[in-house]
Amino acid sequence: MPDCIIGHFVTVSFDNQSGKTFSKDYAMPNLSLQTTFSIIADEGASLPKVVVGAGSASDLSTQVVPDSPTAWKRNKDVFVMHREARGDYEANTSRPRIFVANSTDKDIKGFKVAYYFTADPARNPKVKVDYPEIPVVLENLGGDQWRFVLDASDSVLMAKSVFPSLDGWQIRLYYNDWADFDHLDDWSADYNIGLPQINKKIVVYDVNGHILWGQEPQMFKSIDDGVIASPKGVLSWSDSAPWETNAFKPSVTIKNTGTIALKDYHAKLWFRVPEGKSLYVPTDDWYTPVSKPSLNNVGENVWELDMYFDTYMLYPNETVVEGNIGLHLTDWSDFDKLVCGIALLDSEENVVFGKVPSVNECKTYDLPSLLDVQYVWKI
User: Fold this and answer.
1) Beta pairing partners, 240
2) CATH code that applies to domain 76-213
3) Residue limits of CATH 2.60.40.710 in the chain
4) Which of 69, 148, 155, 304 meets the CB 3.0–4.6 Å disulfide criterion with 127?
């Protein structure tokens, strides 16, 4: 409020949003005995309301204390400042910088900070706090909705201070495979780059889970709620050496046509060997960098080649080619390399594509010989 001083000066003091008190003397040589004072913002700036004081300049006891706008203080006892520090060259990373401010006269013992964002769950988003260290938990809220929570339960946010510092926590968000990371549709991103600004969409909780600052996003609800997404894909195969009549070198191509990643999946094909002949089962590994192949006799002269992708994750719309496995009969004699079935199976042995044939179906299978160089069998 303005404090009127008898004479030709007025001293004005006020508290700003940070809690700091500002004071300034104004020269007023033509000051009258009855004066009304107003404090207004500079052009383009904003104030919660105009602060007005009235009274007699010659009698301090007649001055009326202004109606002080305190609502903003109640809402900003604790608040968050944020900026996005991602560089122009970093298409695959988001770098939120966050710090928490306490404008009150009391210490706050223990708190948590939640940053809400969107990410493709198939790509395994990661969060890393580079500096200063703090426990962080990554949580999936359903579908592509995520949040990470900085746990400062063991820290103290001192009165009239910021935490951890004016530079904030240095945080990185990225995908496990370093694909492009779009942060512009994140709830907490607030499209802010450059200088730190107040961010109402980063939420601060006390140790009991009560919100001290910020607004949580509305509960995420997907059109797929209640529906368990299932993997989808297509499988094809070809013989890498069709001109070799006594050697079979199958290669498979798998494409993920669904919306979730394929994990721990199998590409299988079934073939038969001539009556009275035996298949050579190698004791050493084939060169198959992203799968583990195995051979199994499923009955009589029908064999199964199982290419197990136990570590290689196939993301939506991506393709993997694997194979050129060398198969031959024990005596290296010719055989027609007739494939009687192919199938792509998920981690629980459910068929995603193709069909698992029975032994009898394979024995009676009579499509043209696959020695034809132009022939590649597909479902």
Assistant:
1) none
2) 2.60.40.710
3) 76-213, 233-363
4) 148
pLDDT in tens, 258-314: 877 788 899 999 998 888 888 888 766 677 888 999 999 998 889 999 999 988 888
Judging by beta carbons within 10 Å of its beta carbon (0-12, 13-18, 19+), is residue 348 exposed, middle or buried? exposed
Hey, how many other C-beta atoms are within 10 angstroms of the C-beta on 86? 20
- The reported pLDDT for the residue numbered 284 is 65
pLDDT, position 343: 93
Q: Which long-range contacts (CB under 8 A, 24 or more apart) does 279-284 make?
A: 279/303, 279/327, 279/328, 279/329, 279/330, 280/327, 280/328, 280/329, 280/330, 282/326
- Cα 338 to the center of its chain, rounded Å: 46
Q: What is the DSSP string of 15-39?
A: E-TTS-EEEEEEE-TT--SEEEEEE
* Residue partners of 208: CB distance under 8 A and separation at least 6: none
Of residues 230 and 213, which shows the higher confidence score? 213
- Tens digit of each residue's pLDDT (9 = 90 or more) over 51-62: 444 455 455 555
* pLDDT value of residue 312: 85
Beta bridge partners of 321: 253
238-241-247 Cα angle (round to 5): 105
Closest among 149, 167, 39, 190 to 99, alpha carbons compared: 167
Q: How is domain 233-363 classified at the CATH fold level?
A: Immunoglobulin-like (2.60.40)
Residue 292's SS3 state is: strand
SS3 of 362, please?
helix
